[in-house]
């Protein structure tokens, strides 16, 4: 069911009249309408679909499926004759991005031989993947400068329908897969490409192109960029952030980098001092626990219950105690909102089976854990109180020692 494609006749059409050929539901229960002609562009070729209204009913998706252009609407459109209105801000934004991509890809290939392998037009930014493992800042800056110069020259952007036997007359950047109804987008002396997207009539309407950043994507480079009105949006966002930073750092824009560097240096210095203090506190707490150890028949016992202490810190404390003192056994219980954690450790000169201790204590709290014959750790449900758990731990130790 052929639909006349008004967006190819004139991409600037913002409203049109048409007749409904079909009004149905798809297999997912979504309403759609097929028109005898449409200015709504369906998703394809890296360019997203248009949105808008048909007889004031919101069109949220447009797809070309099974040879027909389907306009997906929030509610069914019942009238035979309809009026369609395109979301022009969205459409023109896509036209700017798509044309800018042609210019950017052409510049990367002409200047450095970096061929574009894919293009994505996102809701905020766009990307192209370049067939190169590296991209320097100098190369990106020179390409951006070249593209913006072409935009200022306001060159024509032409479209032309050709047959397969006519393709040899054009210096195409890549082969065209179609054999019939081949549509070329041409920017004379700049770019010749098979493309089904919508574009403005002049490069000047692209406004400008700004490369934002790039990253490695497998063996290629993915370049993120924006064109036209999106450049202004990016500038507005970044300017707002800079204004906030100048206030927070009490520094003018030109000194923000130095101010941030000073702040980070101060933070690193404070973190270093904080780390030193933590080690001193840990050493002090460890010494205190050793002094408070309870003398048993042939060993000393350090046992304590904590609340919401990092378990790695408790493991380090247990390790410090058992490595600095002989005949020492450490039992810690840590109580959190969700579970009970246990740490057990012994000095190397003691003959005590810590793995057996752990295997006997964990079932009582539906717990899991592991470790070695000198240190074990585990965690389980709060089925009993911390005090009861500690009593059970000391009782098991007496049984297996």
Structure, explained:
With 401 residues, this protein is an alpha+beta fold. The chain folds into four domains: 4-86, Elongation Factor Tu (Ef-tu), domain 3, CATH 2.40.30.130; 92-236, Threonyl-trna Synthetase, Chain A, domain 2 (Threonyl-tRNA Synthetase, Chain A, domain 2); 251-292; 295-400, Diaminopimelate Epimerase, Chain A, domain 1, CATH 3.10.310. It is built from eight helices and 21 strands. The chain has helices at 6-9, 88-112, 137-152, 229-249, 256-291, 311-324, 354-361, 386-400, and strands spanning 4-5, 15-25, 31-35, 37-38, 52-54, 57-65, 68-73, 81-86, 116-121, 126-130, 158-162, 182-187, 191-194, 209-217, 220-227, 294-295, 300-307, 328-335, 340-346, 368-371, 375-380. Strand 18 (328-335) and strand 19 (340-346) form a beta hairpin. The mean pLDDT is 91.
What class would the helix/strand composition place it in? Answer: alpha+beta
Counting structural domains, the number is 4
Lateral arrangement of strands in the main beta sheet: 2-3-7-6-5-8
Low-confidence segments, ≥5 residues, pLDDT <50? none
- Please give the share of residues in helix: 25-40%
- As for the CATH topology of the largest domain, it is Threonyl-tRNA Synthetase, Chain A, domain 2
Give the CATH H-level superfamily of the largest domain: Threonyl-trna Synthetase, Chain A, domain 2
Q: Tell me the overall shape.
A: elongated
- Roughly what is the average pLDDT, rounded to an integer? 91
Can you tell me the CATH class of the largest domain? Answer: Alpha Beta
What Rg is obtained from the alpha carbons, in whole angstroms? 35 Å
């Amino acid at each position: 069911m052929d639909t006349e494609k008004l967006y190819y006749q004139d991409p600037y059409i913002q409203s049109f009249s048409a007749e409904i050929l079909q009004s149905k539901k798809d297999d997912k229960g979504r309403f759609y309408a097929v028109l005898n002609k449409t200015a709504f562009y369906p998703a394809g070729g890296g360019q997203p679909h248009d949105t808008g209204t048909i007889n004031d009913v919101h069109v949220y998706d447009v797809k070309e499926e099974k040879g027909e252009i389907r306009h997906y609407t929030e509610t069914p459109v019942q009238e035979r004759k309809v009026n369609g209105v395109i979301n022009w801000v969205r459409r023109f934004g896509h036209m700017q991005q798509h044309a800018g991509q042609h210019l950017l890809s052409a510049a990367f290939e002409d200047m450095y031989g970096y061929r574009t392998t894919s293009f994505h037009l996102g809701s905020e930014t766009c990307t192209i993947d370049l067939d190169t493992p590296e991209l320097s800042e100098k190369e990106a800056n020179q390409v951006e400068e070249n593209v913006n110069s072409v935009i200022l020259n306001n060159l024509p952007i032409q479209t032309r329908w050709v047959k397969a036997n006519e393709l040899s007359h054009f210096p195409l950047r890549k082969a065209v897969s179609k054999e019939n109804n081949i549509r070329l987008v041409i920017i004379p002396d700049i770019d010749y490409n098979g493309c089904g997207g919508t574009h403005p009539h002049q490069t000047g309407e692209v406004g400008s192109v700004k490369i934002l950043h790039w990253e490695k994507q497998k063996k290629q480079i993915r370049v993120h960029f924006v064109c036209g009105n999106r450049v202004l949006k990016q500038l507005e966002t970044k300017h707002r952030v800079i204004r906030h930073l100048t206030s927070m750092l009490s520094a003018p824009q030109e000194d923000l980098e130095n101010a941030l560097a000073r702040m980070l240096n101060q933070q690193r210095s404070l973190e270093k001092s904080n780390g030193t203090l933590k080690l001193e506190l840990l050493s002090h707490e460890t010494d205190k626990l050793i002094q408070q150890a309870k003398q048993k028949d042939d060993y000393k016992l350090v046992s304590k219950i904590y609340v919401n202490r990092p378990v790695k810190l408790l493991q380090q404390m247990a390790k410090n105690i058992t490595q600095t003192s002989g005949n020492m056994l450490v039992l810690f219980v840590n109580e959190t909102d969700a579970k009970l954690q246990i740490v057990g450790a012994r000095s190397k000169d003691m003959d005590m089976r810590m793995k057996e201790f752990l295997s006997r204590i964990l079932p009582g709290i539906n717990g899991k854990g592991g470790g070695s014959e000198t240190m074990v750790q585990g965690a389980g449900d709060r089925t009993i109180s911390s005090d009861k758990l500690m009593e059970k731990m000391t009782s098991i130790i007496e049984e297996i020692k």
